[in-house]
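Structure first, sequence second, as always.
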């Protein structure tokens, strides 16, 4: 299994059965993304919310690859109207895609559809818990602030082993909040995201590593450069 960071909150997970899961594919306008949008492959695209730095190139990629798009109900209605194979869901619900289970979970953020000309209401922002064929469980939090259910729901109910969480501050958790999130979620691995794409979310990830290590919870911080991947 490979978890490749494409910069910002964009990840491509390639599973043991070679399924390509793309999350928040902000590619062509993402200054930190090292790949061209025409090169990105996907079987399924997960969208956490309608902000253009997350919805990104969803339609272009889905159009070219035929990927299924999973999003909240509001985005799904919009995408269906545009002719996409769109699977809507809502917070707390599960879907199965081949041997993968995907749960939509809460995120404390907003979600207007700012990628269309007449900005539309985009429902709730969310995160995803992705359970792979090998039973490894990945949590992509989307954009979020710290919230208490990271302990009582994310950890206690779904117990993800690999957490992808934002550290860039301003629009999401910063270093302090993200460190507490790690303490609450207790993942084996944490990969920080949503930082250094722009000066406004500049962050030193090594500082995050130090802060997480000082928790002594055994969580390993994996710092990636855009284009790099974590493999196991
Ligand atoms: Ni956002
Ligand atoms: Mn964002």
């Amino acid at each position: 299994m490979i978890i490749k960071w494409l910069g910002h909150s964009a990840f491509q997970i390639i599973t043991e059965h070679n399924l390509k899961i793309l999350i928040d594919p902000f590619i062509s306008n993402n200054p930190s993304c090292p790949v061209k949008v025409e090169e990105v492959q996907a079987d399924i695209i997960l969208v956490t919310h309608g902000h253009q730095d997350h919805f990104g190139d969803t339609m272009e990629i889905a159009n070219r690859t035929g990927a299924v798009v999973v999003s909240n109900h509001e985005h799904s209605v919009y995408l269906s109207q545009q002719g996409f194979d769109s699977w809507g869901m809502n917070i707390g619900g599960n879907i199965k895609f081949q041997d993968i289970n995907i749960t939509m979970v809460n995120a404390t953020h907003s979600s207007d559809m700012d990628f269309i000309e007449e900005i539309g209401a985009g429902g709730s922002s969310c995160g995803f818990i992705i359970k792979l064929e090998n039973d490894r469980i990945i949590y992509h939090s989307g954009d979020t602030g710290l919230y208490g259910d990271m302990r009582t729901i994310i950890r206690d109910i779904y117990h993800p082993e690999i957490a992808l969480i934002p550290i860039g501050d301003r629009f999401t958790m910063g270093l302090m909040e993200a460190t507490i999130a790690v303490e609450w979620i207790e993942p084996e691995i944490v990969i920080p995201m949503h930082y250094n794409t722009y000066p406004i979310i500049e962050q030193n990830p090594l500082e995050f590593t130090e802060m997480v290590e000082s928790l002594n919870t055994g969580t390993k911080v994996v710092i990636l450069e855009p284009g790099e991947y974590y493999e196991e």
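Margin note: The mean pLDDT is 97.
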